[in-house]
């Protein structure tokens, strides 16, 4: 029998450092004011207007923003749970609820000593969302030429879509609800899960400690991959990093309790990469379908709790300031 880590209820959760010492860069001081009643139309007009201007990177603003981020997140070495930042005997506080997990030998044996990201010195990173905006975009080649490619929630990257979304993947962010809805919690769909995972790259990032119910699912995924000796790695998102990101975006005016997988990946890319290019981020469903690929009935039933439209508004602001590049149209062939 595999050993179990000790989970207990905590009266107090470790908090992110006080934001009073974190100074917002001047270029994001002004609040984003968009009318809630016509948010889709306002965002659409803004995106069209922004896309008319040639995008240009701003190295100075990018460095200023990265320094601002580190005030909340402690840098890219803190993105995943490692033996360095979560040693044996230490406590991990869940993002949701007041439970804590004491790190035991089981967790220590399945997490890396350090996160390799910072040492990789990645120059160009692509973060690929799943919006139907990608259909007929011809962005596949542009995505695949990036040094590091991140995707969200096990998207379809078959030949059918490769011209628009590319074929390569290095890291996939996986939400536990997918394991429940698509693979029956890995009770009887282990082979299907492993076969599907073979379509992607070497690493997967699971939110094992967002909620108490996520941990067992993430462990099941790890042991399934280990049992089949796939050679792929499952990493666990550090809940301290998630809390730091929530504080960071709240500090910029994004009043949302939860952040999407796309915003998590974009934030991580900003810390670990020199250049960040976003594809498939487009929340206006009045113009395109929600996802570029057909989802199963179980997947489509999952209710999202993120404010994707306001997240997009904030990403647009980073784009106009030359910090990230949002692909707002078809790619040049």
Automatic annotation (TrEMBL):
Disulfide bonds join 125-273. It holds the Pfam family Glyco_transf_29. One of its GO terms (biological process) is oligosaccharide metabolic process. The keyword Methyltransferase does not apply. GO terms for molecular function: alpha-N-acetylneuraminate alpha-2,8-sialyltransferase activity. Keywords: Disulfide bond, Glycoprotein, Glycosyltransferase, Golgi apparatus, Membrane, Signal-anchor, Transferase, Transmembrane, Transmembrane helix. It is a single-pass type II membrane protein. It is found in: Golgi apparatus membrane. The keyword Membrane applies. GO terms for cellular component: Golgi membrane. InterPro entries: Glyco_trans_29, Glycosyltr_29_Sialyltrsf, GT29-like_sf, Sialyl_trans. Belongs to the glycosyltransferase 29 family. This is ST8 alpha-N-acetyl-neuraminide alpha-2,8-sialyltransferase 7.1. It comes from Petromyzon marinus.
